[in-house]
Amino acid sequence: MQIAVIGAGMAGLTCARQLATHGHSVTVYEKSDSAGGRMSTRETELGGFDHGAQYFTARQPAFQRQVATWCRAGLIDLWRARLVTLDSGVAIAAGLSGQRFVAVPGMNALGRHLAQDLDVRTGQRVTQIESYHDGWLLRVSAETVAIEASAGPFDAVIIAMPADQAAPLLAAAPMMALQAAQARLAPCWSLLLGFEQELRLGYDGAWIRNSRLAWIAHDASKPQRRPGEHWVGHASTEWSAEHLEDDPERVKEKLLKAFHSATGSDVQPVYAAVHRWRFAQAIEPLPSACLWDPQLRIGTCGDWFSAGLDGAGRIENAYLSAAALAESITA
Ligand SMILES: Cc1cc2nc3c(=O)[nH]c(=O)nc-3n(C[C@H](O)[C@H](O)[C@H](O)COP(=O)(O)OP(=O)(O)OC[C@H]3O[C@@H](n4cnc5c(N)ncnc54)[C@H](O)[C@@H]3O)c2cc1C
Hints:
Elements: E1 2-6, H1 10-21, E2 25-29, E3 41-44, E4 47-50, H2 61-72, E5 76-78, E6 83-87, E7 90-94, E8 101-103, H3 108-115, E9 119-121, E10 125-132, E11 135-141, E12 149-154, E13 156-159, H4 163-169, H5 174-180, E14 184-195, E15 205-209, E16 213-218, E17 229-235, H6 237-242, H7 248-263, E18 271-284, E19 291-293, E20 298-300, H8 315-330
Parallel strand pairs: 1-2, 1-13, 2-9, 6-15, 13-20
Antiparallel strand pairs: 3-4, 5-8, 6-7, 10-11, 11-12, 14-17, 14-18, 15-16, 16-17, 19-20
The structure holds flavin-adenine dinucleotide.
Flavin-adenine dinucleotide is lined by residues 6-12, 29-32, 37-39, 52-56, 125-126, 160-162, 165, 188, 190, 234, 277, 280-281, 302-303, 313-315, 318.
């Protein structure tokens, strides 16, 4: 089959690779200028900051096998982080057990690798899926071109992105659109800080209680990162939702204050930036692994499916959901 995959994050790329392995001809459309989605690294003059997904865990045997393969290929490594929980500047608990993996030399490197050997068309936003004879055409817009183009026809279409972004495209499959509308993803403001001076906090990452920030991590403590005092912070879900439309400069000020009070450090950064994720992590997932309509030949996958895990919103969910969808299609 000729298959279009919309979205080049972990879910879209995993599904595309597995379908291509089964002999299908796959074209991936991605609205941003690179693959990886929320496994993202912002490149700055100080080095990269993983400002989306921080690390990932592997609970299910299928994902554990994949993770072992990536480890052997040198694409990912263990992050041996010293983790604590902070409450009002005081570390109240030492790090939790379990292995945490990161892509090297930045989280975006895994997306780049998964996109290799695939036909990935970046800078192409799909705005509509239209029925055409026995298949589908995509309406595609690109920033550099004033008018929308048509792509296809395709025998099947896979939509691999956050549920809220998938909803308008699922108009072609109304029953699926209704189900997707039940999933909910929470927003997140990320804070990126670079310091000239060492902070010497004694930990590499911390969950934070009673603060605007819910998590901070010393990015350079991850393997193969450029040395330096680079920290990433994530605001809590509640605070991010409440301040979603705020001026980024105000958000930066407030989150920097929260960083200082959570860590007890008053060192001023030489670099500070924020990034808004409108759809960061699924808080109300669908209990299934994916959705696939064999009559319409439209499917959807992503981290908003629990896919056999307890909860959702993680890289492992995206992988398992995509693998389940590829299996349904090839079955
Ligand atoms: C701040 C933050 C922290 C996180 N922390 C962790 C963590 O520590 N551990 C963990 O496991 N997970 C974490 N996650 C979640 C993790 O990043 C996701 O679960 C995973 O990356 C989702 O992959 P996906 O392929 O389902 O979606 P995405 O990565 O969102 O990929 C979807 C892709 O579709 C593209 N797209 C959207 N609409 C269109 C369109 N109309 N046309 C073309 N392309 C389109 C997008 O640009 C994107 O590239 C975090 C996420 C965020 C934002």
